[in-house]
Write a structure and sequence with these properties.
Shape: globular
Helix content: under 10%
CATH architecture of the largest domain: Beta Barrel
Length: about 550
Amino acid sequence: MKKARIFSSFAITIIAFFFVHSLYAQVSVRKIYLKRKEVFDSSGQDWFFAGNLANSFHTLTKKYVIDDEILFEQGEELYNDDAEETERNLRSSGLFSSVTVQVDTIDDRTADITITTQDIWSTNLFPVFNVGGGISSLGGFFREINFAGTGSSVMAQALYRTENSIGWDGILTGTYRRVLRSEINFSFALSAHRYRTVQQFSLFQPFRTLSSPLSFGISATNSFGSDFVYSSTAVPQRTPYHVRRAESWISLGMQRKDRLFFSAYIALEDVQRVSPTLRQPYDNSGKILLGFSSLQQKFAKTLKLNGYETEDMAYGGWGTAIIGRIFPIGSQGEGVYYVGGQIQQSVGIGKGYLFGQLTGSSGFERGNPRYTYQEFSGVGHYRFSENFLIASRLRQQTVWNWNAFRQLILDNDAGLRGYAANTLEGANRIIANTELRVYPQTDLWIFKLSGVVFHDIGTIWKQSDQIFNMRFYNAIGGGIRIHNTKASGAEAIIRIDVAYNAHDKSFGGIILSTGQLFSIFGTHTFKLPEVYGMTIDSE
């Protein structure tokens, strides 16, 4: 009788286990089908008589490049969000004009998955003509973002710049993606003109997925030449400098969705400047920073926000707390304790969206604050209809106890369209932009059009000034955007704006550039610990 009860209890336990497992068991992947489409596909609306010829000048993305981003395998269980994350990762690579990952359920326990990608036109070679704020750049641009179908990229640019009589300016960058099919990337950048040269390289492993456990890297920078110091009444002053910097970091990621991170960052810097008055915070100092962070987000696929590309808009939040020690290297360095933090939050409200980010930091020397920095940035939009929306962006930067050189500029590059370059400078800045964006139903082969009406407002002030006494500068205007559906990123959009300078009561000329002035949604991504507020506008 006792044996019967034991057997009965064991049987009930087994039945209960399989019942519970049946409720929570994942679908098993039976087969994975991969369909790779050329840039111009004969079944698409953009097909034309020379489509095959055009495709012959493009190398189709290699199968292994796509395989490396797939988060599931045949014969394994499929987690609920693996398919969605795979699709997002492929789309964010910038290699494809469209990506779909379709799960076809065969029965309650198995499914087939079909991944369809269509390449973008990855080779861009075209003239560049940037105008705005009384300065211009004329030259050429070459970029290949999918070299030989491997997902690696190279970019070269040569511009003749009128700003500060710079003349010819060259840039060369490259990224070797997944070195030897590992998780490691290698990147380099070289830029040079008659007044400045910057050399950089990085070797790093990023957090590639929502469950990646480790990220690390090293980088080095060598920059020398002259910075430009501006004033409203004088010709810009050139100030020689030489900066050598080495950095290294490691970050551990925990949990899958609501992620937690612990990061350690170290940097060593050697700086030479011609004048002590141009010393910047923590010159000739080393930094050891520890960061404790959390990240939570979910995604929604969107169209006609920043353009006609499908974009993954994130909702959620990010937060980080940073503590560290900054120590002198040589007799001219500084020794302080450092604390900093940043929080982000984004929400969707009906047809609207709001994103906000608050940043603060300070060094402390014998209990006294040094280089205290505070920043707020926010963006939001409201969609009246599928083709019509309003969007705004706000950024505010303020410092205290900042007894070192600091220079911010308020002009076209900062977002105040129609104002002369490099004429409004200070230590603190506020800039707000509002745009009405219209996406009409017009197709011009591989091109689409959109329109913008905008208002920009901002001010800039020194530490000794009161913001309530400062003049706010306004600009209004409109423009058009030309969208290339066979490209991605900033180069996929040509931006043409005309701005009216409300201060001078004059038109500021035609502004010609690439990309939207700002994205109308934020991003929540992992960030390394850093010393906030170090940005200097020098050209």
